[in-house]
Amino acid sequence: MILVVGGAGYIGSHLVKELVETKEVVVLDNLSTGHRSLVDRRAHFVEGDLGDKAVLDKLFSNYPIEAVMHFAANSLVGESVQHPYKYYQNNVANTLTLLHSMIDHGVKNFIFSSTAATYGIPNVELIDEQQPTQPINPYGRSKLMVEQILSDFADAYDLHYVVLRYFNAAGAHESAEIGEAHDPETHLIPIILQHLLGQRPKISVFGTDYDTPDGTCIRDYIHVTDLARAHILALNALLSGEKKSATYNLGNGKGYSVKEVIDTCERVTGRKAVIEYTDRRPGDPARLVATSEKIYHELGWKAEYGLEEIIASAWKWHKKGFIGK
Ligand code: UFG
């Protein structure tokens, strides 16, 4: 059985939907940002907090858990600058409690959701895993701290782990039964689509004077279903003993500017956006694009969905409308 912590969130719920096809799954989620209705009905569900050791100990005693996949975190860069305590408490301290309970119960396999924000401001076109990790905000630092803890736990307690550094997760499940549902929404693609549905009066483009061809920021958008597949490959590599520890980037290897993303949304939906150009948003690097060659060579993963397909799947989901919780 696999424990998915944060399985009611955006990325976690997509992983659960794939994972229940082959494994027994139990989800732990406190529903602070996740939604019970996003969790596949075939998974067991426990509402609780990953910082609560008693809840964790009970979970590990009640279920024969062979691996933990950990998606539960706060993940907004701007908020992390204003409320670092929240980020270090939830993302670092609570994860430590989870790891402590795992070790107590002899559970040795762990898959961790990390982020491109661990790299800070890169000075290369394509970021590989060897690039220095110099995060520029508490969110990125909180994720990097856990990566360092994992390395120490591997040495001391024989923990086996895979760290997955996501670039810009986007899109929705092909069924449109689950998708992105943040409140408040801050991410580019859902904001554009909500605007094109008439739910927002306009789109703000944050900064037009970056050192990029059209002056707007470039990101590497990766379909959430591609992310889910990578997790399953990583899990199988841990369970089979093929891998003891590894860190991988998960991206498409192609960068799109904010303007290009808006153009693509207009093309896919056949609707025209009202755009306002504003100042830069603090903490945004000009360009973040991954090479994911390492996971391709080691586990055979590569992204299958391009930007148009990502947007088309998100559009189907947003058009349906989602009533939370
Ligand atoms: N943007 C706009 N207008 C908006 C929203 C976003 O112009 O209304 C721009 C941002 O400035 C950025 C790009 O669109 O240049 C993408 O922004 P998102 O908020 O969608 O995503 P981020 O790249 O900021 O964040 C993502 C993940 C974070 C992670 C970060 C790493 O969501 O969890 O990448 O830098 F930390």
TrEMBL record:
<keyword id="KW-0520">NAD</keyword>
<dbReference type="GO" id="GO:0003978">
    <property type="term" value="F:UDP-glucose 4-epimerase activity"/>
</dbReference>
<comment type="similarity">
    <text>Belongs to the NAD(P)-dependent epimerase/dehydratase family.</text>
</comment>
<dbReference type="InterPro" id="IPR036291">
    <property type="entry name" value="NAD(P)-bd_dom_sf"/>
</dbReference>
<comment type="pathway">
    <text>Carbohydrate metabolism; galactose metabolism.</text>
</comment>
<dbReference type="InterPro" id="IPR005886">
    <property type="entry name" value="UDP_G4E"/>
</dbReference>
<feature type="domain" description="NAD-dependent epimerase/dehydratase">
    <location>
        <begin position="2"/>
        <end position="251"/>
    </location>
</feature>
<dbReference type="GO" id="GO:0033499">
    <property type="term" value="P:galactose catabolic process via UDP-galactose, Leloir pathway"/>
</dbReference>
<keyword id="KW-0119">Carbohydrate metabolism</keyword>
<keyword id="KW-0413">Isomerase</keyword>
<comment type="subunit">
    <text>Homodimer.</text>
</comment>
<protein>
    <recommendedName>
        <fullName>UDP-glucose 4-epimerase</fullName>
        <ecNumber>5.1.3.2</ecNumber>
    </recommendedName>
</protein>
<dbReference type="Pfam" id="PF01370">
    <property type="entry name" value="Epimerase"/>
</dbReference>
<dbReference type="InterPro" id="IPR001509">
    <property type="entry name" value="Epimerase_deHydtase"/>
</dbReference>
<keyword id="KW-0299">Galactose metabolism</keyword>
